[in-house]
Structures are given as C-alpha cells and as structure tokens.
Amino acid sequence: QVQLAESGGGFVQTGGSLRLSCVASTRTPGRFTMGWFRQAPGKEREFVAALRWNGGTTYYADSVKGRFTISKDNTKNTIYLQMNNLRPEDTAVYYCAADGTLIQSSISSHVHWDYWGQGTQVTVSS
Q1: Contact 11/123 with Cβ under 8 angstroms?
Q2: At residue 112, what are phi and psi to the nearest 5 degrees?
C-alpha cells in the first residue's frame, strides 16, 4: 500500500519551468516504480516519466526527453518532476503513480499502475 500526494503545479509561460513533487507514504519505497502521467481535457492519460526507486533507472516519453527530469529524494520519500522549456501542449493535470510489480514493457500504460495521486494542474500559456 502507498498513498501519494502531489504538489507544485501552476501557471507558467511558454519556455518556463515548474517542479512537481510527490510524497509517497510508505515504509517500503524501494518496492515501487514511481511515475508521472498527464491528462489533458478530452484526451487519454499519457505517460510522462518513470523511475525505479530501487536502482534509479529512469524512463521518459519521447515528447519530454531533454526537457523533463524525474528524480527522487530517499530521505523524504519524495519524487520530483523538473519540467523545463514548457510548451502549451504540456498543459494537463499531472498525476503521480506507483506500482510494485511493473515490468518495463508495461510502464508506459496507465492501466498497469495501481496507485494514484489526486493530480495537480499545470497550465502553460502561449
């Protein structure tokens, strides 16, 4: 079991930056793969990035490679999504997710993730 709480969303202009945080309430964070997804109005939930808590392997959607960075702070049970050079198409509700049993081929599909945060809105103006 894990509970997730995101923060850090907001409004930013094109080219700006934001950092999202997700606190994972669990005694065993090393069991989990942590991820970020996003969902824009009328669209499906979309994979953004993921990180294996034990080992730190990271995965990114092609659309965010080179602009977004996922990282973790073991002392705070927190993962971050640093988002740079934001574009209007990055506007969405961003969700933190966790799962204890994901294989690599399943990471990019939201249907395989068991735990979700409440979401935080990111709006990028043109």
Answers
A1: yes
A2: -90, -5
Q: Which two tokens stand for residue 59?
A: 């995965």
Of 98, 103, 104, 97, the closest CA to residue 119 belongs to 97
Give CA–CA dist 119/65, Å, rounded. Answer: 21
Specify the DSSP class assigned to residue 101.
S
| Share of the chain residues as helix, strand and coil, in percent rounded to the nearest 5 | 10, 50, 40
Q: Do 32 and 8 contact (CB within 8 A), yes or no?
A: no
Question: What Å distances lie between residue 64 and 53, 57, 89, CA to CA?
Answer: 20, 16, 11
Between CA 31 and CA 26 the distance in angstroms is 10
For 100-124, write each residue's pLDDT tens digit.
988 888 999 999 999 999 999 999 9
Each residue's pLDDT tens digit, 48-74: 999 999 989 999 999 999 999 999 999
